[in-house]
Amino acid sequence: MPTPAPLQANSQKLHQKQNQRFSKTKQITDKEQLREREKAVTDTTAFTGANNAGTGKGLTIDRIYTTEGVHPYDQVSWEYRDVVQTNWKNGEVIFEQRGVEFPEFWSINASTIVTTKYFRGAQGTPEREYSLRQLINRVVHTYTEAGRKFGYFANEEDAVIFDHELTYMLLNQVFSFNSPVWFNVGTKSPQQVSACFILSVDDSMESILNWYREEGMIFKGGSGAGLNLSRIRSTRNCSRTRVARLRVQFRSCAVQTPLQEPSSRVALPVVQPRWLFST
């Protein structure tokens, strides 16, 4: 299936603008190595089997984007790229991963974001992801296998269609999951997938300190947090130690996690007396 025209146009424009900042496409000439790598990232045998077939009471899935007998990965052209990021002040290399695999129509900017943010595994180890296929497989196969396990599909054919349709949409940028899905699904990390969590804080030191812990763990998984501080008393009725703790917590939100910069949103009613930002 040909690449959608809008995607081709956007890709060409971004390539032209950013070719000066990023290295040229790296072509792999070893055909045997190329075939082995492609086989490794398209093998789905571990995710199928008669034992996981549906019970007939689940969902029936129709094909919209895909064609029976043709895998979505076979409908696009792939290429290998070098992703190198440098410090704009002194040219120092701050990130480098060469030979990453992406569709030709994906922009340099898109492939750089995915490589630096979403590929999992330590740099320089066999566990490090190097292909968009691996990333999509990690997420899609995890969800498809969960659907089989919990009887979401009417039969095995519906599971395969779901797998292919979801793969196609992610591959062709029809939509995308939020960052915590790419960070966590299919890894050994807790399967944290929500972009934002709503927390509650009571008017006690124990609750305030527990807010520290809960928000820190949420940030660690790449998500943001929001809360309402309406229950906290003003400085006229609250100890300065408690207010100081709250100020420290707000400033700590500026600390980045290894995954992304955390986001914290706090609400106070208009009638709340001035307290948090007083000097």
Describe this structure in words.
The chain contains eight helices and five strands, in the order ααββααααβαβαβ. By secondary structure, the protein is α/β, with parallel strands linked by helices. It folds into two domains: 5-184, no CATH class; 196-267. A three-stranded parallel β-sheet has the order 3-4-5, with helices on one face. Helix 4 (132-149) runs antiparallel to helix 5 (156-171) and helix 7 runs parallel beside helix 8. The longest helix has 18 residues, at 132-149.
Task: State the main characteristics.
alpha/beta, disordered C terminus, flat, 3-stranded parallel beta sheet, 279 residues, 5 strands, two-stranded antiparallel sheet
What string gives the helices and strands in order? HHEEHHHHEHEHE
Strand order, largest beta sheet: 3-4-5
Mean pLDDT: 75
For the secondary structure, the number of strands is 5
Short description:
By secondary structure, this protein is α/β, with parallel strands linked by helices.
Helix and strand topology:
Blueprint (H helix, E strand, L loop, with lengths): L4 H14 L12 H12 L35 E9 L6 E11 L4 H11 L13 H18 L6 H16 L7 H6 L11 E5 L4 H16 L3 E5 L11 H13 L11 E4 L12
Parallel strand pairs: 3-4, 4-5
Antiparallel strand pairs: 1-2
